[in-house]
Specification:
Blueprint (H helix, E strand, L loop, with lengths): L9 E7 L28 E7 L23 E6 L17 E6 L3
Antiparallel strand pairs: 1-2, 3-4
Length: about 110
């Protein structure tokens, strides 16, 4: 069964694959509108999404001439209670407990 959602209930943004996306804060990363790679290199990016409704699952369908060379991966949210020591340096992304992104290895 396929369900579609109005555009105002699902927001997506293509961002760098290095961007950390947290569920409880605004996405600060600028949208990525283009990219390039040399022959034989891997080109990576991520699609971050937000919705104001509960979605049990999100399915992605790719249509491209490059389909045999495309690999999709998912990032899930994992609860973390102890994320760092109190004396961490300024390079730590966050100090608060919450849901943190982790690559899914299914």
């Amino acid at each position: 069964m396929e369900t579609t959602y109005p555009a105002d209930q699902l927001e997506t943004r293509i961002v760098s694959s290095l961007t950390k996306v947290f569920a409880d804060e605004e996405l600060q990363a600028l949208p990525q509108h283009s990219g390039s790679a040399l022959r034989g290199e891997t080109y990576s990016f991520q699609m971050a999404y937000r919705t104001n409704i509960h979605m049990r699952s999100l399915q992605v369908h790719v249509e491209s001439e490059l389909l045999p060379h495309i690999e999709l991966r998912t990032v899930e949210l994992a609860p973390a209670e102890f994320v760092n020591y109190h004396d961490a340096d300024e390079f730590v992304l966050r100090m608060t407990p919450g849901l943190y992104p982790i690559r899914s290895f299914r």
